[in-house]
């Protein structure tokens, strides 16, 4: 299938009359440009250029394609301008409520993409605990929430949409004995000193996890800081079960943190949107939902 890149490369060669000059204009290598033209000719099934010592000139079919190529690029440019104008006309204020874990590890990319798409929208972000964010949503004081959905209480009053399912993995220090295991299960983890993250109701979620497994973990440290968990694990003071979206392979001190799947753990951390049910949504919520649904797949740690 002919691509816009091929079309631009074709126009560059047609207008400069040589591969070398076109390559300089397009900031690519001559070999890359030569291959692109050859592939285009093979795809169309005709010779677009006459090759000779002084350069390249268009064949009759090449002249025909050149006219169409300019029309194609003009159509694409017009479409881009039209879409840009439509997003530029969207303006106002959008108030977003977030919980702390989401604010630290999920929000930045989402807001960057939204502001790029809708530059005239003013964004206000309120960070607080999940129960208070729910209260603000139900009362209409904020427009939309970005939060962990598993612990929502006012489900009858809120409409939700999951954006990403972040699997949990076991964080371990380098050289830990469990790294030699072909498979790790919750019973293995329960025998290790466990570092528990309590922010954003993670402690409550962990209690449900262990109760469901019928196991009693050896929790030796509790903290509200993900960076503290990272440093403590890397220092060899314990292991920790954490969602992939917060994983980084290094602590602040530069020590390695490994991540491994837990065979009998299927629980995910579900991050998503929540807004008030039963009333007309604020006008800016729909554009925000559209951008949020385009969220890239979450990065997973190497195994």
Automatic annotation (TrEMBL):
Pfam families: HTH_1, LysR_substrate. One of its GO terms (molecular function) is DNA binding. Keywords: DNA-binding, Transcription, Transcription regulation. Residues 2-59 form the HTH lysR-type domain. The keyword tRNA-binding does not apply. Gene3D superfamilies: Periplasmic binding protein-like II, Winged helix-like DNA-binding domain superfamily/Winged helix DNA-binding domain. The keyword Nucleotide-binding does not apply. Belongs to the LysR transcriptional regulatory family. This is LysR family transcriptional regulator.
